[in-house]
Every structure is written in structure tokens, then in C-alpha cells.
Amino acid sequence: ARAFNFSAGPAMLPEAVMRRAESEFLDWQNTGMSVMEMSHRSKEYMAVAHQMEADLREVMAIPDNYKVLFVHGGASLQFAAIPMNLAEQNDTVDYINTGVWSTKAIKEASRFAKVNVVAGGDEENPTEIPAISDWKFSADAKYIHICSNETITGLEFQEEQLEVVFAQGKPVIADMSSNIMCREIDVSKYAMIYAGAQKNIGPAGLAIVIVREDLLGNARSDTPTLMNWDVYANNESMFNTPATYAWYLAGLVFDWIKTTGGVKHIAEVNKRKAAKLYDYIDASGFYSNSIKLEQRSVMNVTFSLKDSDLDAAFLEQSKAAGLLSLKGHKAFGGMRASIYNAMPEEGVDALIGFMQKFATENA
Ligand code: PLP
């Protein structure tokens, strides 16, 4: 029996995807081999790769003037690749700091350009996005970078903040590692979107870059080949051997999104899942969430117990009940339930049921 896995990533994948992968594992479509064993240049594998990209383009409604790149090195390598592809050492780049992942992106970008921190950075784990009135954009920034969902705290940009970012008229870059495809977005408002795969896309080992074509061709001359977006764009992301099996599994996830009603439907379910969990936490008197109400993440729900001495028992008993990986990130403490697209609503119901029981028994 499969448990409900609340890990922040690598995370639970849809059961239907896992079953299909299992059924195709040894012999993909009568080829006598696993996708894992195919040459990435073979006709069979190219068909898998092309379908995967087409399905991603469909589920995210990616406009034709954007390239989709399937890259190595996770989202973290993009922290450096972004300035290398878009700025020179003396150029200014704007970053809004909303937590640990923004901080890492800023640290890396500072090696390759002059970073202006628009706002934030005073605390390691802020529980709200800095007030818009305090944002200080620079006049000449090459781009503005945001982390649209801080995975560790569960702090997510809302329309209100996004509109202000877009209104600056600069290329907007978003790290969407932990909220890509959680709801419909207008890709055309962004210059570049990137995400590690291991949350809402598929297994670890793959990251996705969605970049507007006019931003290509500007990489610094010392950019390593495999960090240069042009190289990926000009070689169908196959300059070297790609993470073939991760691509294939991501393709199965995109197909699953299509057949379950698309991102629009998934977004409705996500909203419901998050709302019922936050509502329960707020009403419980036993658990609490410290994130500003309107900025709570729909994907990563953090909470603490009234008495942290009960943390170990909570984790042990939840695990025994088939509710896995609820321990919060060590930088923030407490608990975290990551409820990505693949987490069924029954998983959230089961979690709430367990939390109620635990609260009653330990009141
Ligand atoms: N950005 C965010 C928002 C993340 O949550 C993570 C990983 O959890 C990363 C970046 C780093 O991703 P990767 O491990 O793929 O480099």
C-alpha cells in the first residue's frame, strides 16, 4: 500500500504515473527495452522527448516565442546561469528576498553581477513578503528575480505583488520550483521561469527552463557550455546525454495533468486542499501557522505544535499512520506538509484526521 508522502521534494508522484511507469518498465511499447536503456538519439526516445515537451507546452499554455529547455544541475545551477546568460559583471540585477531560496539565488548571482536587493533579507525566514511600499527597484536592472514560493516557510507571492513586479517593465524571472503548474499562469508575463523537477514535475535530476526567445544569445563569453541556454535551445536540450528516464517520467506527469482536467482543475483541488488544512490549523487551538494569512502557500503548509516537546511523538505516530515526511525544514523547525499536485485530497483529509486525533489525545 502506498502511503501519503508529504515530503517537500523529491516528492510524491501520482499513483497513476507510477503504475504506468511500472507497466512499461521492462518493455516500452514492444521495443524489448526500458526507456532507461534507450539511446537518447533513437527514434523511439526522440518521440518520447517530443511528446513530453508538447504536453508541457499544452498544460502550461506556453507561447510559441518561448523555448523550453530541459537542463542539468537542478534549480540551483540556474542561480548562476541566470546572471551568466543575461548580464555582464558590471550590470545591475534586481532580487526580492523572501527567504532561504531567494538568499541562495542572490548569493550566487552576486558572483556574476551587481545585485540590488529590492527588499528583504533582514531575517532568514520571513513570514511575510516585504511590504510593497518598501521595495526599491533600480532604474537600470537587467532583470527582476523572485522566488514565487518559498518552500521552507510556505510563503507565496500573490497577484498583488506580482502585478507590481510586472509593472516595472523589466524582464521578470521566477524560481517556481515549488509552485510550477499549481495554478494557471500567464507565461507571457515572465521572461524566464525555472524549476527543479522533484516537486510538481517528476523525479529529481531534471530542471526546466522556460525562456523567451529574445533573451537567448546574450550569454557571457565565459559561460560554461552546459550553463548556456543557447546551447540547450540549439540542441533540443541534447548537447550531451540528458536525464532520459527523468524526462520520460516528467512526460507521464504532464500527460496525467492533461487527462485529469488540466492545470485549471488541479488548481481548484489545490485550493480546496490548502484551505481545509489551514482552516483546521487555525481553528485547532493546538497547531499554528505563522505565515501572513493572505500569503500562505498553497503547496507547502507549515505548522507548529502548541508544545514542541510533542514533535517527536507527532512524527513517529504520523509515520505509523502512513503519513510520511512531515518534519519541517531544519532552518524553520516545526512541521511541514507539502501538498503538491500529486497529493490526493484524501491525503489531506487523512492528515487532518490524524492531527485531530493527536490533538485530542495530547490536549
Ligand atoms: N528553489 C526552490 C524554491 C526550492 O524549493 C529548491 C529545492 O528545494 C531549489 C530552488 C533548489 O532546487 P535543486 O535542488 O533542484 O537545485
TrEMBL record:
Key word Coiled coil present: no
Keyword annotations from UniProtKB, A to Z: Amino-acid biosynthesis, Aminotransferase, Cytoplasm, Pyridoxal phosphate, Pyridoxine biosynthesis, Serine biosynthesis, Transferase
Keyword Kinase in record: no
Sequence positions bearing N6-(pyridoxal phosphate)lysine: K199
UniProt: L-glutamate binding residues: R41
Pathway entry: Amino-acid biosynthesis; L-serine biosynthesis; L-serine from 3-phospho-D-glycerate: step 2/3; Cofactor biosynthesis; pyridoxine 5'-phosphate biosynthesis; pyridoxine 5'-phosphate from D-erythrose 4-phosphate: step 3/5
Its EC number(s): 2.6.1.52
Catalytic activity: 4-(phosphooxy)-L-threonine + 2-oxoglutarate = (R)-3-hydroxy-2-oxo-4-phosphooxybutanoate + L-glutamate; O-phospho-L-serine + 2-oxoglutarate = 3-phosphooxypyruvate + L-glutamate
Domain Aminotransferase class V: 4-351
Residues passing through the membrane, by range: none
Main location: cytoplasm
MF annotations from Gene Ontology: transaminase activity
EC top class, as a word: transferase
SUBUNIT field: Homodimer.
Family, similarity comment: Belongs to the class-V pyridoxal-phosphate-dependent aminotransferase family. SerC subfamily.
Name of the protein in question: Phosphoserine aminotransferase
Origin organism lineage: Bacteria, Pseudomonadati, Pseudomonadota, Gammaproteobacteria, Thiotrichales
